[in-house]
Amino acid sequence: MSPIPRRSVLKAAAVAGAATQVSWALAGRDAHAAAPRAASAADPVDVGWLEDGGLGAAPGSTFGVPWSRGTHPAGTEFALATEDGRAVPVQTWPTAYWPDGSLKWTAHAVGPAAAGARRLTLTAGTPAAPAKKVTVSANQRRITVDTGVIRAVIGKDGARLVESVTRGATRIATDGRLVLLRQGELDDGEHATARWERFEGEISAAHVEQDGPVRAVIRVDGKHRKGSRRWLPFSVRLYFYAGAESFRMVHTITYDGEQTPGRNKGDFIRGLGVRFTVPLRDAAYDRHIRIAGEGKGFLTEAVQGITGLRRDPGAAVRTAQVRGEKLPDPATWDQRVTTRLQAIPTWGDYTLAQLSSDGFSLRKRTKAGHGWIAAGGGGRAGGFGYVGGVSGGLSFGLRDFWHKHPAQLDIRGAAGDEAEVTLWLWSPEAQPMDLRFYHDGMGQDSYPEQIEGLNITYEDYEPGFGTPYGIARTSELMFWANDKTPTAAALVDQSRAVRTPPQLAASAEALTGAGVFGGLFAPVDRSVPAKAAIEDQLDFLFTYYKDQVEQRRWYGFWDYGDFMHSYDEDRHQWRYDVGGYAWDNSELSPDLWLWFAYLRSGRADIFRFAEALTRHTGEVDVYHLGTWAGLGTRHGVQHYADSAKQQRISTAVYRRPYYYLTADERVGDLMHALVDSDETFLALDPLRKIRTEPYEPDRNALSIGFGTDWSGLAAAWLTEWERRGPRAARAEARLRSTMETIGAQPNGFVQGSGLYDLDTGRFAVAAAPVVDVSHLSAMFGLVEMCAELIDLIDQPKFKEAWLDYCRYFNATKAEQSARYGRDFGSLLLFQGHSRQDAYAAAQSGDARLAARAWSRFYDSDAYTSAMKWDRTPLEGPDVLEPGYENLRINSNETALFGLAAIQNLALVGDRIPT
């Protein structure tokens, strides 16, 4: 069944010409290359900021750099310097190795010493030491991190994740903890009777992952607890940089509650937040509230305001308060104000609630038990605030605040001895988090009935499978321990750092030249009109999807980062409510399209779009607990709704680029968790609904496909092996044994699947050849994984099997029959498979295959040469919001067009028809 609407006639590509060996062919590279040469300062890598503004107010930045095989041996040190030669302290660690032991990827961390630098150069050499090192010490109860400017004490048990944050002798914040509000029953209708319960995060483990000298990372794990009930696991990482006055928090929850469709009772999250207490020492008129609105906008107030009064304390006094500076002695004010200070209200409580992507409201009150006063509102708040006084205070921010609505910021008790700050990842003023399945099954109780449903709505439904149990979500927060109320300019910088954390990145030339990710991408090239036209089309598609996210409001806590699968031209609307045509859930590898687009261009907007997608698809679309842990969910109306739970969605191949570019530990966790995911085939047969013969999963004879199944397993194994993770030896062994036994099959990859032994990690070699080819098999990362593995592991039979698959998928049926005894049947996605023609051409030097790659790319299916790259304006009453559309665009074809265009240009770009 095709997931892609066919709107054009498929044209068979008939390309004449004998295969010839030509100079542009890529020679196969031996896995055991020459020994690493000595590190040399002649190998600099340029590093710059993705966006203008440099490091700004952020505590630091961590970035990854790839290296060509053999360039640097393990253990190489690296130095960083600015354009004018100033040394910048840097902390380095390896994140991947080539098989010869040389460094493949390294991660590098810089702190505030990098502020002011526009570009930097990374070379082998001795790193400069930071003037103020970050240090870590620990005992049985707590971990202490000192950046040289602030000191944080982190608990190893109990409810206080961050016991205290001090700057010098001043305690800026205490009692950093997690808050969860549970509602056990939904209000259905006008009679509201539901009660809330409050849970607090309880630590089960805390340990040091890095301890400086530039960067320290502390991980804290646990569950939320009230009484004897413990649920909603969390994993929090705290990041500290040498010389920084701030720290970063990465917060993950995994849903393990119960919500039964058809019932109003269950575990409904009413509020989810991070809370700190902020001690207050200054007089009420020297305490300040700052809350970010849109752009550079701020609410700028004092807890006790002395501006706008009937009596004027004096211009100098008023100006100082607005600036956040300490006021002169009240004895110097106009005494008509000084003697009446007790009659001026103090405003202790503030709330900014962002309940949709388009609107926030702001209100305040004097204290609990008294009425709220509207203080403003707007569209999209920055998710940032400050509370404190002239002797210090806490700035705080939540990234993607309006993107992942409903969110909220609370300040409570600022008129007392201490204020309480809560950053709500899920606002308690919103409706409770309702994750129940969206329909009652509609009588689809048997596989035949479910197949009928698939044939009409494209939804693969099965009772009990549309569960959110085990999905996760990660949020990013930032905190500053200020020694005084920040200036307006400093607050703008801090807020900007929350919205867009500064990211250092290697140049596109370095990323494309290192030969990583199979060498399947090359720098953007507009040197000839044919290439320029494809580059324009790639730009058009990226812009189209970026604009559609905004036009269609694809935002929300669980949704942000993903986009839709298919379009309904009659409603001028994406099919958000039609079965398997709704959320895309990584169908046909859009993650890879976007990351390859970034790697070859270095564009910040593509990086940020791909980053949001990676955060979403790796967390929300994948199970991290329960029976299906390690599997992802196929595209559907809800991200977890479809009953197809498969490796093709959870695959590490979609996470690898982001991990290696940023060294993000959470994404590293996700990939490591998949190392033993071959065990999932015991729990769930992905072909259970369409098998024609009886099958029961057998540990020593598991039916596993060589396409979407094995590519997911291979991606996890490769990542663990090259990272030298705890399961690296097992991962390498599984890679080699499965490659060997796939290559040994009578028909190689065309065999389709094999019986896998979990204990030996090998496929049984079939006695007879079989032709079992699907147009989906190679489109979920198999192309990319095979390119990497062939480059890394010398297994000629595996390479031969893959090259044969590449040669014959897009061949004529007669050619397929001549090679395999029968043709491959009715296939689709020829444009997407043109990159396999290109790969085989580049490996073999076959000019006919290179020509066929371009023929299939331009004139087979999907976005052919007849494609109209235009935009049709939309306005009411046809649509909810004005915008534009292109009826021809859908996400399957976009992802495959993007990958085919990028890889064909890289592999056979000099053979492009002109």
Description:
Among the domains are: 1-30 and 528-557 and 828-914, no CATH class; 135-278, no CATH class; 280-433, no CATH class. Strand 15 and strand 16 form a beta hairpin. By secondary structure, it is of the alpha+beta class. Helix 13 (708-723) runs antiparallel to helix 14, helix 13 (708-723) crosses helix 15 (782-792) and helix 19 packs antiparallel against helix 20. The chain has a 20-stranded antiparallel sheet that branches. The chain is built from 20 helices and 37 strands.
Architecture blueprint of SSEs:
Layout: E1 45-49, E2 61-66, E3 78-82, E4 87-88, E5 91-97, E6 103-110, E7 119-124, E8 135-138, E9 142-146, E10 150-155, E11 162-167, E12 170-185, E13 196-211, E14 215-226, E15 229-241, E16 246-254, E17 265-279, E18 287-292, E19 298-302, H1 315-323, H2 335-338, E20 349-356, E21 359-365, E22 373-378, E23 384-389, E24 392-398, E25 407-412, E26 418-426, H3 447-457, E27 472-482, H4 488-499, E28 504-506, H5 508-513, H6 529-552, E29 567-568, E30 573-574, H7 590-601, H8 604-619, E31 632-633, E32 645-646, H9 647-650, H10 656-662, H11 665-672, H12 680-683, E33 702-705, H13 708-723, H14 728-743, E34 753-757, E35 762-763, H15 782-792, H16 796-809, H17 813-820, H18 830-844, H19 847-859, E36 872-874, E37 883-885, H20 891-908
Antiparallel strand pairs: 1-7, 1-28, 2-6, 3-4, 3-7, 5-6, 8-9, 9-10, 10-11, 11-12, 12-13, 12-17, 13-14, 14-15, 15-16, 16-27, 17-26, 18-19, 18-23, 20-21, 20-25, 21-22, 23-24, 24-27, 25-26, 29-30, 31-32, 33-34, 34-35, 36-37
Helix pairs in contact: 6-20, 7-8, 7-20, 13-14, 13-15, 14-16, 16-18, 18-19, 18-20, 19-20
